[in-house]
Amino acid sequence: MSQTIYIIRHGETDWNRAKRFQGQTDIALNDEGRLQAVRLAIKLAEVLPFDRLVASDLIRAQETAEILNRGYDTPITVDEGLREMNFGQWEGLNINAIQERWPNELQAWYDSGQLTVPGGETQEELFQRVWQRFQYWANKEDYQKMAIVCHGAVCGVLICGVLGRPHQEMHQYMLANTGMYVVTVESQGRYKLTTLP
User: Fold this and answer.
1) Which residues constitute the domain of residue 33?
2) 98 alpha carbon, distance to own chain's centre
3) CA-CA distance, 86 to 126, in Å (whole number)?
4) Is 10 part of the annotated catalytic residue set?
5) Full strand arrangement of the beta sheet holding 145-150
6) What is the DSSP string of 142-190?
7) Is 151 marked active-site?
8) Mean pLDDT, to the nearest integer, of 155-169?
């Protein structure tokens, strides 16, 4: 039985539009984000419904999953291990404000991934947290099509894991709102990034 995982970033929020770091602050979708999720559901019409839907416990991910699930009765499982990176004191601030207060730290965060954001977590901590949860869900045998609805940095480190790349490359794989990666499970613990449907 072939198994496919759709890794999906949530729709737009007002903080996304303002380019503010959200992290684990619980911000709902805005109207554009809801429309984005509806458009994604239309794009995915031929593969819906999913056999399993897993979403971060943050409302923007849950709301996106609920829109994808409209008209279907797939239970949505909430997993707090898939929530966004903890950006600590950066949450609520945009890049300009962070650049003013923490220029060296911001550069280190982009360059090396070793930085602990003040009051937050490192990319390594993020990767360990979400990769464990991804493998937990991916290794289950009771699905053919599963969606994991999560966040930008989470998508980035998950694709690093799928490709066997260092998590410091996460910025290359971060998705736009309602962007999606499709992953094929080749065997337990072995995954292949495939094209969009």
Assistant:
1) 3-194
2) 22
3) 8
4) yes
5) 76-78, 52-55, 145-150, 3-9, 180-187, 190-194
6) S-SEEEEEE-HHHHHHHHHHHHT--GGGGGGGPPPTT-EEEEEEEETTE
7) no
8) 93
Q: Tell me whether the omega of the peptide bond preceding residue 49 falls within 30 degrees of 0, making it cis.
A: yes
> For the whole model, what pTM was predicted?
0.94
Token pair, residue 168, equals 């410091």
Residue 49: CATH number of its domain:
3.40.50.1240
Q: Given its phi and psi angles, is residue 27 left (phi above 0), alpha (psi -120 to 50 degrees) or beta?
A: beta
- Number of structural domains in the chain: 1
Instruction: State the catalytic residue, choosing from 12, 63, 84, 91.
Output: 84
The pLDDT > 70 percentage for the chain reads 96
Catalytic residue (choose from 10, 12, 63, 91): 10
Distances (CA, A) of 72 to 35, 51, 113, 151, 174: 18, 10, 40, 23, 29
According to DSSP, the residues that pair with 30 across neighbouring strands are none
